[in-house]
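Sample intake sheet
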Amino acid sequence: MGLESNELSRKGQPRRRSVVLVGMMGVGKTTVGKRLAPRLGLPFFDADEEIERAAGMSVADLFARYGEEHFRRGETQVIERLLSGDPIVLATGGGAMTIKSTRQVIKERSLSVWLRADIDVIVERATRRDTRPLLRDGDPRATIDRLMQLRAPWYAEADLTVDSAKGPQSRTVDCVLAAVQERLNMEMDA
């Protein structure tokens, strides 16, 4: 069964709503989201993939050609569109929560989960491939540390926080699923 608003259906079950995964690049939002979605009975979408599809070019090319500000405006539009339809599991890009209007849409239309990880895990995962535009110049570890410090307050606005540790992502999926179910049970009891 999927998720929706805090209201209860006639059978006393939570109504369906979207689950949005937020957090730094490399924490595993896409991997966790792909595994979480079938367990919740919801389709999965990756915001970056949807942006690339809409723009007809990669995120890295969008950054290079138009800059981060233009990219973030498009990202907000794509996230708003995705969350305006039927419930889904959505993995956002690492910078999505830096935009107030994006945070607001996520807050209003979903149950958000901050996937949090320590810097060593993020650096190891985020630097495996050269697809991260913000890591192309300078020291990736210093960039990640700076971005973590800057973005943590925005990520902390998420409804739930789950740590993504080293090791199999299946553990993180289980933790996210348990946190979502616990939150829904609390909402039903309220």
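Comment: The longest helix spans residues 169-189. The radius of gyration is 16 Å.
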